[in-house]
Amino acid sequence: MNYPHPILAREGWPFIAAAVVAAILVAYFFGFAWSIPLWLITIFVIQFFRDPPREVPGQTNAVVSPADGRVVRVEKTLDPYTKADSLLVSVFMNVFNVHSNRSPVDGTIEHVEYRAGTFVNADLDKASSENERNALVLKLSDGTRISVVQVAGLIARRILCYVRPGEALARGQRYGFIRFGSRVDVYLPLSAKPKVAVGDKVYATSTIIAEL
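Predicted structure:
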C-alpha cells in the first residue's frame, strides 16, 4: 500500500525528539537507572503519534470510522451544522488510540467551522456542544450533506485541520489530528443504517460505522 504519510505522525516529531533528548541527557549525566522513567515516557509518546496505513473498504455506500477508539453515542439528533435531523455516531479516543483523523466518505468540503469552548472529558455527551471543536460539512455526489466534528477533550489542547472549503476528500483520506485524548462526531442522514453500537471498538478507515 502506498501510504503518503510517515508511520510516526509529523505532528509528534518535536515531542518524540524532546523525549529522546531528555532521556539521553539524564542517562549521560546521572546514569541509566535515572533515565528509565523518561524512556517510558518516550515509548508512550511514540505510540501516541503512530499513524499506520489502513485498508479502505470497497463497499461504495460505506461510511468509515474517522478515528480509532470506542463508540460512545449512536442516536438520532439534530445536526447543529446542517440543521437537519441526523444519525449521530461518536467515537471517543483515549491516549492509547491513534489520533490521526480520516474522512468517513467521499465528498467535497462545503464548510469548515471552528468553535472555541471548554475542555471537559470528551467521553461525556455534553462535550459535543461545550468543548472546543472543528467541524467539516461534506457534500456527497448525490447532494447528501454530512458533518464530521473534531472535539477536544480533557487533556487535548490542539485540534489540527489541514483542509479548506472547496477541497475534495476521499474515504480514508487523512485530514487532521487531535493531540492527547478527544472524540470525533459524525452526523449522517436518518436513512443511514448504523453498523456499530455503543461500546464497540473501531479503527479509522477500516471499520464501517454505517451504510448510506
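Summary: The chain has three helices and 14 strands.
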